[in-house]
Amino acid sequence: MQPPKPRRGEIWNLSVPGEADPALQPALIISEDVRNGLSDGLIVIPAFSSGRLGPTRVPIAGGCGGLAGDSVLFCEEVTRVGRDALSGGPLGPRVPERLLQEVMRAIRRALGEVIL
């Protein structure tokens, strides 16, 4: 079986370890494609079906990237996951570039950079 080949801007379901009933968590792949092809680790932003909006959180409409419903990307929770955490394939097509740019600005805010 070939390992999955995630690409930047795709949303994948991740297996959440340590759960009694293994849950799947959607997450946006933000690491660069070259890195994704060479490393066993991926850099992701989790998406939740609800959550307060703020300077480090980005709303994403249902259908975008294959998400079933409206969600919120928690950009303050940049996370590295192993490729083995990926479940299935991407939920849909890549998200628009403007959304990725908004996510990157929110990450920079989370790190303390002043972004207007």
SSE blueprint:
Blueprint: E1 11-16, E2 23-29, H1 33-38, E3 41-48, E4 57-60, E5 71-74, E6 79-82, E7 86-87, H2 97-110
Antiparallel strand pairs: 1-2, 1-7, 2-3, 3-5, 3-6, 4-5
What does this structure look like?
InterPro entries: PemK-like, Plasmid_toxin/cell-grow_inhib. This is Type II toxin-antitoxin system PemK/MazF family toxin. There is one protein chain. 17% of the residues lie in helices and 30% in strands. The chain is an alpha+beta fold. Strands 1, 2, 3, 4, 5, 6 and 7 form a seven-stranded antiparallel beta sheet that branches. The longest helix is centred in the last third of the chain and has 14 residues, at 97-110. The chain starts with 10 loop residues before the first strand and ends in a 6-residue tail after the last helix.
